[in-house]
Amino acid sequence: MRIMFVGDSMTIGSAGDHTWRYRMWQHLNASYGAPYKIVGPRRELYDPSTGEAGSLDYGDPGFPERCRGHLAGWGEGWLHMAPLIGDAVRQGKADTLLISLGLIDLGFYTDADQTAANVRRFFAEAREANPRIRAVLMPVIPNVRALADPPFAAECERFNELLGKAVADLDEPTSPLLLASSPQGWDIDRDTYDGTHPNAAGEHLLAAAFATALHQAWDVAGPYAPALSHR
Predict the structure, then answer these.
(1) Which of 89, 120, 142, 200 has the most CB within a 10 Å radius?
(2) What PANTHER family does this protein's entry cite (predicted)?
(3) 229, pLDDT greater than 80
(4) In terms of Cα–Cα distance, which of 18, 1, 99 is closest to 63?
């Protein structure tokens, strides 16, 4: 299994974060009894001091460099990743994508329908690179803006409906797509540090949502056990 994490600021993480990618790496090490590799063209975290990706200051410096691969970016969404995914899949020989995208698109770039069109473009490019690619997709998790901006909250809800339809339409036996459940019990006050980006508790919830989908649908690894990876 060759896994690629694809996402926006919630996935790349900021300097000092562990990231949910790290939590997933720990989970796989603890419960997946087969070879796997984490791939992706990027390694860095977002650096608030420069406003760019470039930090290697992970919360755990023992997170191996070879396991830090990803295709995630601060301020990047489906719009940005669709043109990049084909080359990233080819270069990394990825066969499994764990994707958390959409909030930034809806917040700054595209409406729900346009964002859903970019989802379909993304998978056309990914499948051209690997016709047997499989993926788990996270629905958009409404952030603090959605609490104060009803039209934005409505766009998030509509996009999640369109995302579910896209997953159903595009799912194939040889290239399965799976819509994960939103992180169980997510609370923006408890699980984020700013109303959007996950703190340690939120990182575990995101990793658990992906891990649960992988385990239940494809029997990959075991149930998520935060105690195994909470350091």
Answers:
(1) 89
(2) GDSL-LIKE LIPASE/ACYLHYDROLASE, PUTATIVE (AFU_ORTHOLOGUE AFUA_2G00820)-RELATED, GDSL-LIKE LIPASE_ACYLHYDROLASE, PUTATIVE (AFU_ORTHOLOGUE AFUA_2G00820)-RELATED
(3) no
(4) 18
